[in-house]
Each structure stands twice: as structure tokens, then as C-alpha cells.
Specification:
single chain
Length: about 100
């Protein structure tokens, strides 16, 4: 049995989109910095030998598996934090202005 859902999509005005751009840009930068700091702390704790930096794709001293694991964890963490910050920033913007900044 399929369930039906009601769309609660909110349309943004052009002015709301323009006003939100700097907020979105700053929150994106802060989210990236936060994700980077969190990833470095996680990597220090879970990496073999507690290496401080994750391996890069051109570092031959690491196995391909280590490089892939680091990239997957870093990407998932970054995307998750970015989604949380972007969504909460949009909610705060809506609360302050009465308009949703998205499409």
C-alpha cells in the first residue's frame, strides 16, 4: 500500500535568494572548516599508528584501501555537516525574514 504525502515545498522570492547568498556562502565555509577539524580528530583516533593527517591519493606509502577509506569517511562527513548547516541556516533565515531562501 503506497502512502501519499503532501508537498510542503516553499517558494523563495528573488530578494530572499539574493539576501541569503552571503549567509549561505559564510555558512558553507564554516561548515567546511568544521568538517575538516572533525575529520582530523576522527582520523587521528582511528588510523593505524594514529597518523595526524589522512593519506592523499599520491602518497605511495599508503595502501589504496587506506586512501579510499579516508576519502569516503571525509566525503560523508563533509556532506553531512554541510547539509545540517545549510538546512539550519535556511531555517534561521526564514525565522528572521519570514521567507524561505531556497527554490
Amino acid at each position: 500500500m503506497a502512502s501519499s504525502s503532501v508537498s510542503t515545498e516553499k517558494k523563495a522570492s528573488t530578494s530572499a535568494k539574493l539576501l541569503y547568498r552571503p549567509v549561505g556562502l559564510v555558512s558553507g565555509i564554516l561548515g567546511g572548516l568544521l568538517a575538516s577539524m572533525i575529520f582530523k580528530q576522527i582520523w587521528k583516533r582511528v588510523s593505524p599508528g594514529h597518523q595526524s593527517d589522512a593519506p592523499g591519493p599520491l602518497q605511495t606509502e599508503y595502501s589504496f584501501k587506506e586512501i579510499l577509506v579516508a576519502a569516503v569517511v571525509q566525503g560523508a562527513l563533509y556532506a553531512t555537516i554541510k547539509a545540517i548547516i545549510t538546512r539550519q541556516g535556511a531555517r534561521a533565515f526564514e525565522k528572521a525574514t519570514g521567507e524561505w531562501p531556497g527554490s
